Task: structure prediction
Amino acid sequence: MDALKVRNAADVEEVVRAAIASEQPLDVIGHGSKRRIGQLTATNAVLDLSALNAVVGYEPNELIITAQAGAPLADLLSLIDSKSQQFAFEPMDTGPLLGTTGRGTLGGMIAAGLAGPRRIRAGGVRDHLLGAHAVSGFGDSFKTGGKVVKNVTGYDLCKLLAGSWGTLAVMTEATLKVMPRPESERSLVLRGLDDLRANRAMTAALGSPFDVSGAAHVPASALRPEVEGLGLIGSPREAVTVLRLEGITASAAHRAASLAKQLATFGAVEIIADDASARVWAAVRDVLPFAANGPLGAWPVWRIVCPPVSGGALGQALTRPTGGEVIYDWGGGLIWAALPPQPDASAGLVRKEVAAAGGHAMLLRAWDEMRHAVEVFQPQAPGVAALEERVRVSFDPKTILNRGRMRRSVAS
Result:
């Protein structure tokens, strides 16, 4: 493995231009915490950004932070937490699910674009990305966006970088907005609901005027272990539906009580507060019941996004024929599906049922053989695929950056 560790943006330009000249694709990494996600890349050359790890500027009063792409995410979270601030989209820690250590880097967080439970209210990573410096597949540096929430700098190219998995450009620096951390939180817990009834309860809560910031359902399981956080609200053998409200203490408490009354028809409601609530939602965010070191650690895991109203039915369509397990987030709009191992990770069934529900699916955890056998990311309709390819080529015509990471057809 040829590892090229850069110190600044000029080094990145030099490495990319040399790769273009030699037609050698580059695998772009920070800490490598997400390298097991996506198709197998077609290279042995690694562009290592971990030394680009400085915080360039943090202005708590302006609600923005600027850091280099290799800055450890754990350090950034600690820094903004010290000022009672947060990334409102709740970046997921993929470490437990993949069996890797560390939360990765700022650049990896943006490139993956994996938002947590608050996505339903706060939006995703791209909605909080204000600007970026990057090096394109031409070997040229460019800047997009700015350091203010409202700017008129033209087309927001930085939004394309979020969720691009490093296939468009090498980010060297990024600016994101941060938000005040809520003073308090309350979570409502309902027990024993089946998937469809839980889906209706979450839909009712999200349609209420009480500003719900999290809605998840964890079905009963005879296989899952008791995990940190969720163990606070019951045994894995009992289904739990959890709804979160945040804000100043008086408001969160009042809204939680009012919502509990509205949901009384779904059963008895328990309310948990603050630290206990936060630990439950951390477990949901990081999908701890499917952790790599647990009983389901050898099962492939799909990340499925669908219309929330279809979530319960889709989850049942996947688990009943396979004996698999699911966890619902985003009010049913995000489904984590752990399915018993098959050579194709049950891709045929998943793609069929997800298409029927109007959703899309990504094989987030799988072994190399499975990642080689199936399309990890959702196959696109021909028109969308052509547009996606035109965008990619406009950034990286020689397919130097993370070649084949998102599409098997690009790997050669």
